[in-house]
Design a protein that fits this description.
302 residues, alpha+beta, three-stranded antiparallel beta sheet, elongated
Amino acid sequence: MASFTITKRAKANGDFSYRCGIVVKKNNAIIHRESKTFRKKELARTYGKKRVQEIENDEIGVKKTIPLGALLDLYIEDIHLWEQTGRTKRYVIQMLRDCDIASINSNKLKTSDLIKHCKIRQEAGAKPATVYHDVCYLRAVMKKAQPVFDIEANCAIFDEALPTLIDMGLIGKSDKRTRRPTEVELEKLKKGLELRQNQKANGQVRIPYLDILEFSILTCMRIGEICKLKWDDLNQDHKTILVRDRKDPRKKEGNHMIAPLLGDSFNIAVKQPKTSELIFPYNPRSVSAGFQRVRNELGIED
């Protein structure tokens, strides 16, 4: 049995949209779910009535194809997929649900649709590297459509579209950082971070910013990697440590590497208090936020 509901949603600009959600149940269990968003409530209601009738008349073809917005919703609602999704990818997928491209059916996506979406995003201020994430993550969701949800999706279109999007300058990879901090800037940073870590923490854990800064410079590790280092992975005889899930664009998990702790990095590690299984048991976001505040207060840019 198919039914629909209308949900009113507020947009960032103060306007409202109306989302028509379609649910199909069999033996009191949901076997299909889809949705589509409209500017007016009447349009959403008309669509809901029509779609329910179509499903009731041809229930076998229910999962053939759905709007991309509905496919994105299915992806979000699948706990096995969503729990494995990183923070940036989650943000992009949720953002795509409110874009015009979300109204296109999963098996009807064309290169021209992707070009239009990328142009709209660039006009809104997004850079080619940011828009590239839109395309990559939409492709990743569409690849799950057939095997996971039994829904047809035109994934092959991306092989055709990507070269064109790159040639048009609509998507691209981020620029490499070429500027390193000067010795004067580093000294300023160290003094600023020392002041910050010595401030009263109001009951919160004090973060050893200086040790983490020095350790990151000596090991070339990211903050996220440093804050996941474990005492059990530290080899004190060889002065090495196992870095788990090191960032690699080709491999998201299981990319473990043994890294040498050169210079004074080994001494910095072993002098940390053993209050946790982690050597630096701090939230990497808090560490980054503290560093950025000090950097901005000092006027150090780029």
